[in-house]
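Quick check before the chapter quiz. The format below is the same one you will see on the exam, so make sure you can read both the input and the output lines.
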Amino acid sequence: MRPSPMTGKSAENKGTKVMMKPTHHNRRSFISGSVALAAAGTVISAAEAQQSRGMASMKRGMTLSDCVQDCLESHKMCLETARYCMDKGGKHVSTKHLSLLLDCAEICQTTANSLLRRSSQHAVICEACARVCEACARDCDSFAADAQMRQCALTCRTCAQSCRDMVGMAI
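Here is the expected output.
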């Protein structure tokens, strides 16, 4: 039997050798569909991607690595937003606001670390992280007209939901 031009291997199906042959029609359809999507400018914003990933995680079940990723994204976003606020000035640099951003960044980093270590205290840490992330999101919402602050609020809420999902899970 000759190998498949796609894989260089023959496929077996219940003891019978079957030739895997590419179909040019399927490949052409896939490529033209991909080009059409790109040409239409179908781009999901970071906020939409987070939101859809958050909804998907609720449907399929949160995994430890999902929560770690959400914590790390929130950590990064809060640090970037704190820097943004310092550059912006005004009410963006209130002690309460900057402290909350930095507290959120720290608890998110700590939570990610504890999950990666499979800490027996992960539920307590995740619950604390969820509470701080929600507080940070509410504070960022007070800057409703500011896109950076809206994105930070969304990122913190995604992390809070992930952490709440992890509270009841054994790791």
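If your answer matched, good. The two ends are 48 Å apart (CA to CA).
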